[in-house]
Amino acid sequence: MAQQTDPRILGTEKIGKLLLQYSIPAIIGMTITSLYNIIDSIFIGHGVGAMAISGLAITFPLMNLVVAFCVLISAGGATISSIRLGQKDLDGATAVLGNTLMLCLINSVIFGGIAFLFLDPILDFFGASPDTLPYARDFMQVVLLGTPITYTMIGLNNVMRATGYPKKAMLTSMVTVIANIIIAPIFIFHFHWGIRGAAMATVLSQFIGMVWVVQHFRNKDSFVHFTHGFWRLKKRIIGSIFSIGMSPFAMNVTACVIVIIINNSLQKYGGDLAIGAYGIMNRLLMLYVMIVMGLTMGMQPIIGYNYGAQKHDRVKQTLRLGILVGVLITSSGFLICEIVPHTVSAIFTNNEELINMAASGLRICILMFPLVGAQIVISSFFQSIGKAKVSIFLSLSRQLVYLLPCLLLFPGWYGLEGIWMSMPVSDGLAFITAVISLMIYIKKVTKENSTKTDYELR
């Protein structure tokens, strides 16, 4: 049997085994990354204070933008490289690698520089108060200076996973998070550098991960690696990367807009502590969302390779199994947060008012959470087969088409609870939209295959 690092097994090995082989490392990596965010918040909450939690929550929209401009490149690069390998085009996959790296660096300098120059006005617009602005500013100044490191690590790590090295990609996340867990408390509690120390620990740990992944692609024994002239940008590859990456980019930009509206609404109806409560809820729910995203990262090379190789039955098997696992993951999050919301909220802070506010909001927010797993998997499926427009639509439907109107209407009727109610309503509607889109696609493909079969019989 082919070795694990040989991507050709994607077209021959059993789907269940492949999904375990590719998804488990990605899930572990994404879980570790999410736990790193949670642990970071715990260090900040207990080492700096409850108001620092609120200040950190103010940065979420800007962090979404940081991620958006990164996945614009990394998601597209990973998808296209796996499709090229499915088409037996090793040179094409190598060219995609080089273009991904260069575009990540260019994006990081442009976006990071502009955001750094206008940081205070941006944070004010995002809902910062005089009490939370200093914390948000101290954190984001360091993060923005480190964007070239962050983008290089994430961009190349996604390509490494897509080109046959899921375990190595998982190790990148593990190395980064373990380093951060060690460094962050030293910077926060020993050196008393506060929330800025947490940000410095983040960037430093990502630098360690970046060195690891760059070294992988410098090694000529790697299936896809840097070659002479890898830095040359090619117009056709750039267009393909942006086309595929536009879906997760749009999703993160929309998330940024939504969180801005949420933060300003929370400030109006609940004050700084309500923003902190949302920050706690966001960290908890993102843990399960990130696990599902890890699942879709493992699915992506399997679906991309087999779609490129015209093995549609294997694509369908992967999708069905992915939806089932995705729903199980988010359902587990629903049960835990419904049963012990105060316990999980108390992990982040000792402030009783903040704990109670987060727990009551959490129980409302997750009412439709089991369906979120299926919606994410279906949206990722369309991205993996290169159907960028459908993927973009599904990515936008939950937040822009459904959540935004709810956020504009419900708080005026129900106050703070209206903000929390907006989330399960939009989750349910987005799930229905994703299922309908998938049914339309399956019907179209079935009809095309039937027509093709009839033609061949003639």
From TrEMBL:
Main location group: membrane
Family annotation (InterPro entries): MATE_fam, MATE_MepA-like, MATE_MepA_subfamily, MdtK-like
Subcellular location: Cell membrane
Keywords: Antibiotic resistance, Cell membrane, Membrane, Transmembrane, Transmembrane helix, Transport
GO CC annotation: plasma membrane
CDD domains: MATE_MepA_like
GO biological process, one term: response to antibiotic
Membrane topology recorded in Swiss-Prot or TrEMBL: Multi-pass membrane protein
Keyword Transmembrane: yes
Superkingdom as given in the UniProt entry: Bacteria
Membrane-spanning ranges: 18-39, 51-75, 96-119, 139-159, 171-191, 197-217, 237-262, 285-307, 319-342, 354-378, 390-413, 419-442
Molecular function via GO: antiporter activity; xenobiotic transmembrane transporter activity
Stored Pfam families: MatE (PF01554)
NCBIfam families hit by this protein: matE
Family designation: Belongs to the multi antimicrobial extrusion (MATE) (TC 2.A.66.1) family. MepA subfamily.
Name of the protein in question: Multidrug export protein MepA
